[in-house]
Design a protein that fits this description.
Keywords: Oxidoreductase
Distance between the termini: 32 Å
InterPro entries: NAD(P)-bd_dom_sf, Sc_DH/Rdtase_CS, SDR_fam
Strand content: 15-25%
Bound molecules: NADPH dihydro-nicotinamide-adenine-dinucleotide phosphate
GO molecular function: oxidoreductase activity, acting on the CH-OH group of donors, NAD or NADP as acceptor
Largest sheet: 7 strands, parallel
Organism: Ahrensia marina
Order of helices and strands: EHEHEHEHEHEHHE
CATH class: Alpha Beta
Helix content: 40-55%
Family: Belongs to the short-chain dehydrogenases/reductases (SDR) family.
Radius of gyration: 17 Å
CATH topology: Rossmann fold
Number of domains: 1
Structural class: alpha/beta
């Protein structure tokens, strides 16, 4: 992947799943990385593993619901590597449930992590991109916002809102800022672990186990968008298991 080499890429939520797989793939191609998540032990271990393989990676404790934390995370790229080429807004949660269960705290949490988090990332990255005269925002969205299923209303709403933010950013930006929305279907990760309802969680985990893609497939998709020549913007990619409706 020659185009990725030398790029400085910040990835939120890289302690597991899609974010970690993306960090590994991009590190192999020579990118310099800033990776963040709340679980300090996991994100530090991930960075340590990548450094052992020769990659230039720093890890940060990051909570995307905290604007100052996101700002400090993004600043690390410039402080350590002198630039930021790509922000991957990947961190996300899905404590899904029926609306009638009134799990309002979980609705708030999804809005904070899945929507406010990427917005804080955009707020931190845009001034850097403007000053550099180039940049790329990649949002990890979801097919849940494209085809609705029961229990998914709030989660899907946050992802559709993020898709809209991405499209708005693209429309307002000149050719020096690229915006990509990647919408995965089922992917085999720890993603369902936050679902409190045992019946809903086991149904999702069963489906993930049966048809879920590897996180590596999503990492390849992110790398594809990054590796295009600078005048090529990959706008929206839907990547789901062939067996998913
Ligand atoms: P994981 O649960 O494996 O990864 C989620 C990541 O987000 C973790 O690294 C977690 O780290 C991080 N995270 C959660 N909350 C915060 C926070 N407040 N601040 C910083 N980091 C946070 O699941 P996936 O890899 O599957 O999820 C990645 C993205 O992919 C999400 O946006 C999700 O919506 C999306 N997606 C996933 C699909 C799937 O089927 N798996 C399908 C479609 C989209 P930590 O807990 O250490 O903070």
């Amino acid at each position: 992947m020659p185009h990725t080499t030398q790029k400085v890429i910040a990835i939120t939520g890289a302690s597991s799943g899609i974010g970690l797989a993306t960090a590994k793939l991009l590190a192999q191609s020579g990118a310099k990385l800033v990776i963040g998540a709340r679980r300090a032990d996991r994100i530090d271990a991930a960075a340590e593993g990548l450094r052992r393989d020769g990659a230039d990676v720093i890890s940060c404790s990051l909570d995307v619901t905290d604007r100052a934390s996101v700002s400090a995370f993004v600043s690390q790229a410039v402080e350590r590597f002198g630039q930021l080429d790509v922000l991957v807004n990947n961190a996300g949660i899905a404590p899904i449930s029926a609306l009638d269960d009134l799990n309002v705290d979980e609705w708030d949490a999804m809005i904070d992590v899945n929507l406010r988090g990427p917005l804080y990332g955009i707020a931190a990255a845009l001034p850097i991109f403007r000053q550099q005269g180039s940049g790329h925002v990649i949002n990890i969205v979801s097919t849940a916002g494209l085809v609705l299923a029961p229990h998914m209303a709030v989660y899907a709403a946050t992802k559709n809102a993020l898709r809209t933010i991405g499209e708005g950013l693209r429309l307002e930006s000149g050719p020096d800022l690229r915006v990509t929305n990647v919408s995965p279907g089922f992917v085999q990760t720890e993603f369902a672990s936050s679902i409190a309802d045992e019946t809903v969680r086991s149904a999702i985990e069963k489906r993930m186990g049966e048809i879920g893609l590897s996180a590596d497939s999503i990492a390849q998709t992110v790398a594809f968008a990054i590796n295009q020549p600078s005048d090529v913007e990959v706008g929206d990619i839907v990547i789901r298991p062939a067996a998913q409706n």
